[in-house]
């Protein structure tokens, strides 16, 4: 009898990751950051003017002087420690812990957040909310799923390759979000799961970005800060990208096959069933694909062509991309209302926009908390007195005593972890590369290795860090919790991280420079 009762009792989830919410993880990090302010003295760097040539034009910029670190001293010559207050701002402009949320959401150049990411997510979410209200995307997904039935197993590897190549060529992370809003539901409709969709879109882009070899704006900045020729070291990066992409394609193909055939149950199955039910409802209703639906799809297609053109040739930022899809939403809303697509009325437009934007509320809060944490540590200005500057200096001191190959690996691990606190790649590069590149050279490691360590560390960290607004946003789209994502993919992410160590070691052995 007892045995029977025990069998009926729900099994306790042993994996603590499943119950951890990203807000809990980030707030725990905020508390840790507050404790650091009690023990870590404040420090600052100086900046210097450097000149370089870009596209034949002489330019100049300011960068951190690696040898200029100084502790902030009081009148008695003692190192200054300023504990963060509970409320308000300290004498050295450190935030109080209870001010973190508001200050982070307000945004600041010193918070290291991607400029405009919060409004970008809200505008994109609202715009696609209007698009999804028309029901046209669901109709198209049904058509595509039906026409690809005979070769459906080719879709995940092909999609992964295209997204990985796009990440390598254009180096974008946040720009993939609008694309995932269409392709993840399509992957689910093909009898895969949402996590497969996340891997094949967002995950693939991050892999490509980590091994990018082209002169994307981010790579140009990093190579300029490191003092190496722009577009140099491409061959090794291309080979590395190809190897890791092939390995990931093998993994995603095997995983997708298991999900598709039912031999592996998806962690996200319960949430995926909501979308499957919605698609089944549309199939049963047999919604007509008429003139209005075609006009909506033409508008969407033109918007994505505009997006690709803008990224490839005009270096569009989040501002322009959000404007593209807001324009699309206005046109689609007008078409949907005029043709009454899916019973759409004019009053449904603001409701759909609000509902779509609300889907990204979790990502917005995560971004705000992460940015507030950076401000709690003093911000990313190297010339301002901050805990963050001192922590960076301590890491540099440790690196100066280790062997060359170990130094490269420590740089890689440091950039990976540091991205948790500074989740913006550009802000992290401006603070760390001018210090790490000359340090690497003094240890017998090429500056290219320090750049590669930065690329791998920052690129791959976005696959796991709860402070990554793009990751939390994509997971919100797919209705997959952060805990489910980690529980499902931690082994794969660990494998990719280890591959990064191997690639850096190989680069040192072949004298990659």
UniProtKB/TrEMBL annotation:
Record carries keyword Nucleus: no
**Topologically, how does it sit relative to the membrane?**
Multi-pass membrane protein
User: Which InterPro entries does this UniProt record tie to the protein?
Assistant: C4_dicarb_anaerob_car-like, DASS-Related_Transporters
Keywords for the protein's UniProt record, in alphabetical order: Cell membrane, Membrane, Transmembrane, Transmembrane helix
Give the stretches traversing the membrane: 20-42, 111-131, 151-169, 175-192, 204-226, 238-257, 291-312, 318-339, 360-380, 400-422, 429-454, 460-480, 492-512
GO CC annotations? plasma membrane
Its annotated compartments are: Cell membrane
Stored Pfam families: DcuC (PF03606)
Taxonomic superkingdom: Bacteria
Q: What is this protein called?
A: Basic amino acid antiporter YfcC
Give the source species.
Answer: Candidatus Butyricicoccus avistercoris
